[in-house]
# Entry
Amino acid sequence: MGSYWSSFYSTEKGATTPTDTETNRRGKRANDTDLDTDNLEDPLLYTPQKKKLKSTTDYIYQVLFVNGENSDITITALGKEWKLHKIYLKQCGYFDSMFNGSWREAEASSISLDIPDDNIDVEALSIAFGCLYRDDFTIEPVKVVPVLAAACLLQLDGLMQQCAVIMMDTISMNTVCEYYECSVTYGLTLVTAACFKWFENNIMYKQTKILLKHISSQLLQQLIESPDLFVMQVEMDVYNLLKRWLFLQLVPGWSGSYRKELTKQADAHFKEAVRQEFGRGSSRSYLETKCGRKYKCVFATLRLQHILVDLTSTNTLLKDRLLPKEWLMPYFKAQWMTMLRVEQGEELGPKKEEVEESIFNHQSLRCARVLNRDTEHQWRWIGFNYGVDLVVTYTGRTIILKRNSSSHNRLLSTQSRRYVMFKVTVSCLNDLGQVTYTKTSGVVTTDFEKDGQVLALSVDRKATMPLRVALNLLYITPKLSDSLPNLLNIRLPHTHCGSCRRRRKSVTAIASTSCTDVDSSQCDVTGRADSPAAPSPSSVGSSEGAASTGDVDSDL
# Structure
């Protein structure tokens, strides 16, 4: 290119043209190149060239489905008609059995479908019918539930699988409740499991009014029981979550501030309900009221043994009077017996051969924290752990557990060796709340000497911030004699409604009166009829507002 422009420029200035010898020399080289090229085969001649013409499926879809040409059957549903073809409809299990059986519709030229599912609309039916005429189709996530419902009605397994893939890719705070309910209804087990995993990772971290309003008591009970629930920060926060959820179930139209007003409004609502049903000064709890009894199963899944190890949390439970105090007494007894065994050297902690993994999952303390920066972090969670002060350190992409033997105003065990069972899990989430990275140590049993430490988990470099760190911990060996009580089987004292109280004349008289003396239609009796009157409430010295369980210990 450069020599060409040089020659052109010289000619313009009047320079002499190249000599014949130079021309012949260059021409010879050019002719040589042409000869060489003629002897080579062009590789492009053997490279397939793909040119997409109008596809057959597009033609079939437009002519047969959209235009309805040569239709041999008319389907009517939801006020709309579709001109379709039996040969294509037989791809559906619904129509295949209809046309091949001894049904009246087998020879009919028009069929009216009854649509019993409210999730199905006209657009969803059109998409379901249309997919019978083409290989590829597009479904917007906002329409995936109606299309799934239509696919289930027509027994289109392929379309159901495509809906399941779309749902699993778009699970988020705005869709998870609807997806979970629909996946259970239509039998999409993989979507159900994916939604449940989303709840485990996000329900404690992304609490909103809309989310809590739409979670059923059965689903919430399963989440509270799950050992993989991401508890942010400690078990007391699970109780606070349940309290907010219960209030929103009872007062779904409440529109105040979730963070600033909800807890205060919930406490006032529960106490007023107890006062109205049992009278002012009653020591009964909200779960003993007529409205509260149906929620006992959910609150019975709380791991109270890990809530009652903190004074502020214990005072809050007693002050709220949401749970029956009869539920708390078995835990107080079990914990006192455990403290005596630790003090007398009979309890050194759980050993692997003594505690099965299922028991660990059911009884372990769950606690978690989110690390926003990839720098060194060190923390502990609040609560008395029977003399073991476990400090967690994140440094250099590793998580280290250390048994701290310095006092720091804590009651520490003087035993030289203590056993602890733990499981460390780290995870990262995307903007939708879906897991992009996770790693776990599995259930590990280790013995800690004083100031001893163990490398619990190494975090891969591909893990991004923020990093979620969750621990399951078990500090003591569960004993059969101190096994956790079945709270639903605990008998509660007999309580009387307002009609009963008006009929009693004295405390002595009501104690000797049988239930047959009272109109049973006006008094909803719980527990034994001959149970004694409830004792007077004990005085609890607690502050007006409980300290946030999310605060980490400031000693570090």
Residues 20-38 form the longest helix (19 residues). The longest strand covers residues 417-429.
